Amino acid sequence: MAAILVVCSGNICRSPIAEGLLRRALERRLDDDAPAVGSAGTIAVDGAPAMPESVEAARERGVDIETHAARRLTPDLIGGADLIVGMAAEHRDAVGRLAPGAAARTFTLKELTRLLEGRTAAEQEARLDARVGEAAAARASGAPANRFDEDVVDPLGMPLETYRAIAWELDEWTDRLVAALYGAVSARAEGV
What kind of fold does domain 3-191 have according to CATH? Predict the structure, then answer.
């Protein structure tokens, strides 16, 4: 089964929220066929809990990350992922340094979404590896990027309102990513 790895710095703020939101969006769309979703951090302390503000902001968006335990990014985690989604360019670059062969399947959340939006999947239910390949090819061909809006800001040390704003942003982008990966769902199908 396919696997998606979400990466940030400490794996206690952004990536746990993104992991939960992405898992929910994929399960809503693909049910039992949804790829596994996990997360890790480039400087994470293994076992550290998610920040209380992250837990609260995720809960307010309908996702429970209370039991999250941070994991440090390793070559093995990278090797087990079909797609790696960084919260910022620095995370995408860190994955590339740790596992150079993973560069073609490593993107920031916003980069990947933008690369795939507007590109129709060959089939309505495209395979994850095929869509990742399409995004890598688009990036290699020089598809326009927005380097000024590529990162999701790290809320560490900020008030709860900042975590709420980040959770809202991640919710929007993960929904857009799932639609870009697997095609749009009609409003009628969503209501079923």
Answer: Rossmann fold (3.40.50)
